[in-house]
Amino acid sequence: MIKMEIMRGNDLPEWVIYPPEYLRLIDYGLVKFAPWYLLDRRLAGLRYDGLKRRYPDKKLFPFAARLDCDDIACWEQGSMSHVIVMHDFTSEGYENRRASCLFWDWFRSAIEDMINHESQ
């Protein structure tokens, strides 16, 4: 089983409270399901800092990313129960990929992506 360290304490934005569904995936070691993977403490910190610079008007915290493109899954301040999938590293206004959805809906979609990815 893969053990992953996540951001905690002073490293974590004060508004982020990890949803229990996310923590359950961590506990089960379900952190890689290509093309998606959950971001560990270091990668989440790097992507979080980058999002603040690239999209200063948004309050986003990334928790997962895709290997095959620049899509990331984030929580937004004030809406931690929903996941936003966005295309990072693009001009502001073009980053939104998918409307917000509940965590398990995002995970189902990520598993579908894995099935499609594996069958190529």
How would you concisely characterize the structure shown here?
The protein is an alpha+beta fold and 120 residues long.
Count of spatially separate domains: 1
Mean pLDDT: 91
Distance between the termini: 26 Å
Order of helices and strands: HEEHEEEEH
Catalogue the unreliable spans.
none
> Describe the biggest sheet?
6 strands, antiparallel
The assigned structural class equals: alpha+beta
Q: What is the CA-atom radius of gyration, in angstroms?
A: 14 Å
- Total strand count, please? 6
Strand content: 25-35%
- Kindly report the spatial arrangement of strands forming the biggest sheet: 1-2-3-4-5-6
Helix percent reads: 25-40%
Number of separate helices: 3
Identify the notable features of this structure and list them briefly.
120 residues, alpha+beta, six-stranded antiparallel β-sheet, 3 helices
Walk me through this protein's architecture.
With 120 residues, the chain is an alpha+beta fold. The chain has one domain. It is 32% helix and 28% strand. The protein contains three helices and six strands. The chain has a six-stranded antiparallel sheet, sandwiched between helices. Strand 1 and strand 2 form a beta hairpin. The radius of gyration is 14 Å and the shape is globular. The model has no long low-confidence stretch (mean pLDDT 91).
Fold blueprint:
Layout lengths: L19 H9 L3 E2 L2 E3 L2 H14 L5 E7 L4 E6 L2 E9 L8 E7 H16 L2
Antiparallel strand pairs: 1-2, 2-3, 3-4, 4-5, 5-6
